[in-house]
Design goal:
The protein has 386 residues and is of the alpha+beta class. The protein is built from twelve helices and nine strands. The two termini are 29 Å apart.
Amino acid sequence: MKGNLSALKFVRNNKKQVWVMIVALSLTFMTMYIINFLFLSTQESFKGLFLEQPKKVAFVDLAPDTMGVDRNSCASDEEYYEKTDEARNKIIENLKEHEGISDVIYTQCLYASYTPVVGAVGYDFPLLSKEKIPEYLEHMEAKLISGRMPEGDGEILVDEKVLKNKKMEIGGYFNESAYGKTFRVVGIIESDYLLCVGTPQGYTNSGWYMVVLCDEENSDMSKVLSDIGIITTEYDTIYDSVDWAEMYEDMVTNQIDVALLGILIVVIIFLAISILVAYVSFMRNRVNEYCLYASIGFSRRDIYGMIMREILIIFGFSILLGAVMTVIIMLVMGNFVLDNMGLIYNYFYPEHLLRILAAFVVIVGFLQIPVSVTINNIKTIDMIEE
């Protein structure tokens, strides 16, 4: 007797209204994913430094009490310092004999920083003799790709990403704002860990550490030190795989996830209100049309199905258009912005894409309210005048 009500008629006959809706939804999709893309580039950029580098090198500075040196039992400062050095050297020798530890070097360290889209991080790296640097690079699976190896005092090798990020170049001074014209960049290295290394220049440093070259299974320094009879306390400074992993979880993953979830919720609320207002207006203008369909024999279910197909066409095309726009924007930002900042990023984040799609599903769910009210209030044509 009758076919299905066409959802495309409304789309074809109301191009201006429909396109306004599609563009708004597409821009919303694009904005939400691009925000995710930028925030998560921070997470990606930090992974090597926080999660991978500490599996190969740890920085340890033990308090004298931890090493068994009692200040009160020493007759002079000289005796105190001598005993501290002896205790530290003994610990270093014991660590070198521990399984999974390839070397331990007590040396000065320098401070490097890295600034992604959100936040920033500072970390120490060792200042070694020029003879030790090739061994360190080999252990860290890094290689020199430009410039030369350090030959004199105060010469630094910098990861290519850090070099871009801090706008440094070969021949320039490393972290000049903090160290002045003390350390010079002589080479660029390629690594997965934002790695830096150099030679000392006098006693300009960010501290002295036992730099422990380890493997992943022996990268928990508290456990390793416990194995040789040293119980660490809160007065000791240890940067190892456990410490960095906790910082990554607390300072990076959790904070970024909370921020993105908050942004998503705010967008859902404003988008839901806007779409609800728009669709209420659409359906008010089409009351007579719905009544006409009911009068010629279409059921409320038929009319509901037509409205839902219209909504799905608009939302589906919006997501498709938004996805195309998003890919273009990400390619441009990745190649011309993030690469120049020395950042690491991915294009595809399934979990966050599903979040955005779920947000659109929630909006469609909200639309059931005005749709249901409109369907229940449909009258046949002979009742329109009442």
